[in-house]
């Protein structure tokens, strides 16, 4: 199937981690013919991912910016436009979660960090790219949410609230910009074999896998595949949806 991604320019936020969703998304888009702007607060990690993009024969730009800082985000988008001349795809992947704890033990700083990175970061990047996409009447925005945003998170109230906000934000913005040929959708990963899994308490993952119908954790590549689909011409009639990738019937 021709996905229509050849020659497109994509910005993937939070793509500096070498074991996270962002890197897999960036490399998968590159394999489909996209040039990639690799964003992270860790410039060294972003450069590593960008180098792998270039090894696939695509152009890459590693760029440091904190998605919670609207000025840094605006500067980042301007740099991408000046470098590539266009920006077709935004993947709002950057995210974080405060250490799990009961809500009453959660500090105001931890709550604000969850909201700022996961929800406000998504908002800042979307606000920065939309004028260009609306003007050219083409764009794809894919936001990464979480099952916690659908079902609620146990001991992760701030993170769950932020990710639920991402889903609602996705639907609201999608209604506004779809007439301008800009599609906005979400991907909701299941328990994944990323940094979370590698730092999980003993026994937690074994018990989690028992509830997954496919019998395995979600891999970063599973999420990358879903993002590539939603970013492609094959998904041009999909608007404001959340694609759940968990290996189970329930989110």
Kindly list the characteristics that best describe this protein:
251 residues, alpha/beta, Rossmann fold, 15% strand, globular
Task: Give your account of this protein's structure.
- The chain has 251 residues and is α/β, with parallel strands linked by helices.
- It has one domain: 3-Layer(aba) Sandwich (Rossmann fold).
- It is 46% helix and 15% strand.
- The chain has helices at residues 21-31, 43-55, 70-84, 108-136, 148-151, 157-177, 195-198, 204-210, 220-231; strands at 9-12, 35-40, 60-64, 89-92, 139-144, 182-189, 242-245.
- A seven-stranded parallel β-sheet has the order 3-2-1-4-5-6-7, with helices on both faces.
- Strand 4, helix 4 and strand 5 form a beta-alpha-beta unit.
- Helix 1 (21-31) runs parallel beside helix 2.
- The longest helix is centred in the middle third of the chain and has 29 residues, at 108-136.
- It is globular.
- The two termini are 28 Å apart.
- The model has no long low-confidence stretch (mean pLDDT 94).
């Amino acid at each position: 199937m021709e996905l229509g991604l050849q020659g497109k320019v994509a910005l993937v936020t939070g793509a500096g981690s070498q074991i996270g969703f962002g890197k897999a998304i960036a490399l998968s888009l590159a394999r489909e013919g996209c040039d990639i702007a690799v964003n992270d607060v860790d410039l060294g990690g972003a450069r590593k991912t960008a180098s792998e993009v270039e090894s696939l024969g695509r152009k890459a730009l590693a760029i440091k910016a904190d998605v919670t800082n609207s000025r840094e985000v605006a500067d980042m988008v301007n740099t991408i436009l000046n470098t590539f001349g266009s920006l077709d795809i935004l993947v709002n992947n950057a995210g974080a979660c405060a250490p799990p704890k009961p809500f009453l033990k959660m500090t105001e700083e931890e709550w604000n960090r969850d909201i700022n990175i996961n929800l406000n970061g998504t908002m800042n990047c979307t606000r920065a790219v939309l004028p260009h996409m609306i003007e050219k009447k083409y764009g794809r925005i894919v936001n990464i949410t979480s099952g916690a945003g659908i079902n609620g998170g146990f001991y992760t109230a701030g993170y769950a609230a932020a990710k639920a906000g991402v889903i609602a934000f996705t639907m609201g913005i999608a209604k506004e910009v779809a007439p301008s040929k800009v599609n906005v959708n979400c991907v909701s990963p299941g328990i994944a074999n990323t940094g979370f899994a590698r730092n999980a308490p003993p026994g937690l993952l074994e018990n989690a896998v028992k509830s997954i119908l496919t019998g395995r954790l979600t891999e970063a590549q599973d999420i990358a595949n879903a993002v590539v689909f939603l970013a492609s011409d094959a998904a041009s009639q999909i608007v404001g949806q959340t694609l759940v990738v968990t290996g189970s019937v329930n989110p």
